[in-house]
Amino acid sequence: MADNPAPRARPLMDIATFEDNFGVKPERKTYLCYEVEVLEGDTWAPMEERQGFLRNQGADTPREPRRHAELCFLDLFPSWGLDRGKQYRLTWYVSWSPRPDCAPELAAFLRENSHVSLRIFAARIYTKVSGYERGLRDLRDAGAQLAIMTLEELQHCWETFVDNQGQAFEPWSELDEHIRAHSQELENILWNRRN
User: Fold this and answer.
1) Which domains does the chain carry?
2) Predicted TM-score of the model (pTM)
3) Block means of pLDDT (10 residues each) for the chain, length 195 residues?
4) According to the model, what pLDDT value does residue 186 have?
5) Which positions are catalytic?
6) What is the spatial distance between Cα 91 and Cα 44, in angstroms, rounded to a whole number?
7) For a tag on the chain, would you pick the N or C end, based on fewer CB atoms within 10 A?
8) In terms of Cα–Cα distance, which of 174, 122, 170, 126 is closest to 150?
9) Helix 132-141 / helix 103-112 crossing angle, nearest 10 deg
């Protein structure tokens, strides 16, 4: 009898990429770290083979079509063939909140996949395009849970998705203020309040 081959290690993000994209002073690229859990009884069990990260496509190569990281995830999802008779929870950790032009596709995905819930933790809010507030509210209305990444989520990403080489996560200066400001901004957007 042949031995089973060892599972292939999934790619990890390098430290500089994580710091440059999830830090307080970010790059303009969007990275999306994802994990999938399945409901077993009353407990969410991680599906470690369904963890990874992706980034938006086409930003660095003019000949490649542009595709946002969220839509790249939606392209990947059907290949997993998840059992529609079970409940799944997707958790995304994104460097930028979804843009408004992604919101309709994400809302449609949630409507078509009632066996899936989606939590989105964003490092910051993408405000460079008009309609971003409406897009975030549309995602909320479609059932997505939206929040700003806290120290807990950043540390989880560091430990789960980053080739941290055994180093502990060191919070950036001004991180607490960054989290508070963006959390308040997101709450105001979701509940249509003016600052």
Assistant:
1) 15-190 (3.40.140.10)
2) 0.90
3) 52 94 84 97 94 84 78 95 96 95 94 96 93 94 97 97 96 93 95 68
4) 96
5) 70
6) 12
7) N
8) 122
9) 10
